[in-house]
Amino acid sequence: MKLGPLNHVGVATPSIDDSIAFWRDVMGATVIREPFDMPEQGVKVCFVDTPNSQIELIEPLGEDSPIHGFLKHNPLGGQHHLCFEVPDIHAAKAEFEAQGKRVLGEPRIGAHGTPIFFIHPKDMGGVLTEIMETPKDAH
Ligand code: CO
Questions:
Q1: What is the distance between the alpha carbons of residues 86 and 83, in angstroms, rounded to a whole number?
Q2: Confidence class for position 1, pLDDT limits 50, 70, 90
Q3: Other C-beta atoms within 10 Å of 136: how many?
Q4: Residue 46: inside a domain, yes or no?
Q5: Domain span holding position 127
Q6: Would residue 85 show up in a list of annotated catalytic residues for this protein?
Q7: Could you give the C-alpha distances from 22 to 19, 32, 41, 48, in angstroms and in order?
Q8: Rounded to whole angstroms, how far apart are CA atoms 113 and 120?
Q9: Which pLDDT belongs to residue 60?
Q10: Ligand 1 centroid vs 25 CA: distance in angstroms?
Q11: Domains: count for the chain
């Protein structure tokens, strides 16, 4: 396994609108992408560009959203996951599984339109980790 670029840091929030104001007014973000719904994942997402990466703001969408549980324990929101890029999603899945890491489900299309999967935080030093195939037009 070769460590790839940090694509984004996922941050859960009870309100994307409030978080956009925070990143713009307090942190000085100037490039804030249009929020969009991902109904299959139960989330609304908004990317905030930083000079070297992105923040992925994640708000629950619908009653069954997995983010409700996170916000129950962290009512203000907070850091939710880290996302690293790999060149080949299926090779990465096989490598993590060969090391006994619990991959959560099959690769699926993520917020950037390329395949992703998550790895259980208990196998990753407590960090929910997203692995994402590098977009073909990136870097
Ligand atoms: Co993410």
A1: 10
A2: confident
A3: 8
A4: yes
A5: 6-133
A6: no
A7: 5, 11, 25, 11
A8: 22
A9: 98
A10: 23
A11: 1
